[in-house]
């Protein structure tokens, strides 16, 4: 799933590519992806692209006062095409193509989603705050006003909620998903199950630095990369996420996993939990 660093890099890459171009045509291939009807999708046709920005994990293409906001969900992506096909795509539930944006020089974007679970969402709005998911976003962890004091307030408000969940919940902190929450907690040497309101002052400072450094470093590595390079860059720099069974790059212990209904987390027992494996409730049920 694209998270803050990848969406930030996408915004930078697309902003440069779309600068000075007009949107000539938009084709919808997956009707379920479009979540708004006023303004209509066709209202974007003939508009000039003013810029591309990010709100949490949402991508925002602004054109002549309108906004095409995209949430790429778990398996969505944006693919640049130097030349798009002249024949419009046919709507299909089997195609990976959700939306195609054709520019005035016949280049454009394909917004795609792999897999059978279709969650990608596109919104055409006059104000990004008209998108419910954007309106509910918490503070951006790389913004100047995301201070350690504000972070402390957020964690106290989360109470006994596990740190993993607090970091991932978009209304609490915007932009951190499953992968970078694992990476942040590994960098901070903290258990994903640690209660949010249980941190000492030193632990709070360590976790705050891990949030800023992990995300900031990922953004710096991704800056300037083309969209096609971002997924590979992310995977090649993950210490524990998606690394189950491999050695921890810090201590050499085996990275372990806890599975849930529709996701999983990875961690290093030596670095994060005092050498003790965390309970995997799903596996426990299977063994009964």
From TrEMBL:
Keywords carried by this UniProt record: DNA damage, DNA repair, DNA-binding, Glycosidase, Hydrolase, Lyase, Metal-binding, Multifunctional enzyme, Zinc, Zinc-finger
Pfam families: Fapy_DNA_glyco, H2TH, zf-FPG_IleRS
SUPFAM superfamilies on file: Glucocorticoid receptor-like (DNA-binding domain), N-terminal domain of MutM-like DNA repair proteins, S13-like H2TH domain
Reactions it catalyzes: Hydrolysis of DNA containing ring-opened 7-methylguanine residues, releasing 2,6-diamino-4-hydroxy-5-(N-methyl)formamidopyrimidine
Residues of the Formamidopyrimidine-DNA glycosylase catalytic domain: 2-120
Domain FPG-type, residue spans: 239-273
Cofactor: Zn(2+)
Domain of life: Bacteria
PANTHER family documented for this protein: FORMAMIDOPYRIMIDINE-DNA GLYCOSYLASE
Family: Belongs to the FPG family.
The name this protein goes by in its record: Fpg/Nei family DNA glycosylase
Organism, scientific name: Nocardioides conyzicola
């Amino acid at each position: 799933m694209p998270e803050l660093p990848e969406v930030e890099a996408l915004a930078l890459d697309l902003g440069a590519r779309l600068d000075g171009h007009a949107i000539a045509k938009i084709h919808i291939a997956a009707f379920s992806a479009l979540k708004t009807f006023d303004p209509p999708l066709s209202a974007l046709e003939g508009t000039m692209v003013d810029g591309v920005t990010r709100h949490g994990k949402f991508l925002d293409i602004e054109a002549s006062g309108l906004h095409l906001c995209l949430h790429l969900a778990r398996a969505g992506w944006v693919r640049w095409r130097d030349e798009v096909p002249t024949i419009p795509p046919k709507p299909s539930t089997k195609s990976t193509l959700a939306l195609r944006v054709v520019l005035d020089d016949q280049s454009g974007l394909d917004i795609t989603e792999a897999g059978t679970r279709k969650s990608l969402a596109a919104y055409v709005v006059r104000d990004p705050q008209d998108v419910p998911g954007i309106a509910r976003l918490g503070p951006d962890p790389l913004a100047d006003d995301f201070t350690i004091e504000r972070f402390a307030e957020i964690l106290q408000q989360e109470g006994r909620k596990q740190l993993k969940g607090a970091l991932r919940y978009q209304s609490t902190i915007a932009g951190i998903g499953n992968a970078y929450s694992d990476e942040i907690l590994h960098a901070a040497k903290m258990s994903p199950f640690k209660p949010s309101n249980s941190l000492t002052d030193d632990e709070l400072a360590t976790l705050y630095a891990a949030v800023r450094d992990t995300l900031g470093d990922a953004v710096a590595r991704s800056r300037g990369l083309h969209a096609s390079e971002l997924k590979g860059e992310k995977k090649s720099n993950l210490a524990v996420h998606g690394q189950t069974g491999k050695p921890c790059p810090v201590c050499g212990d085996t990275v372990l996993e806890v599975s849930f209904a529709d996701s999983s987390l990875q961690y290093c027992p030596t670095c994060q939990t005092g050498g003790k494996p965390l309970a995997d409730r799903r596996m426990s049920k299977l063994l009964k």
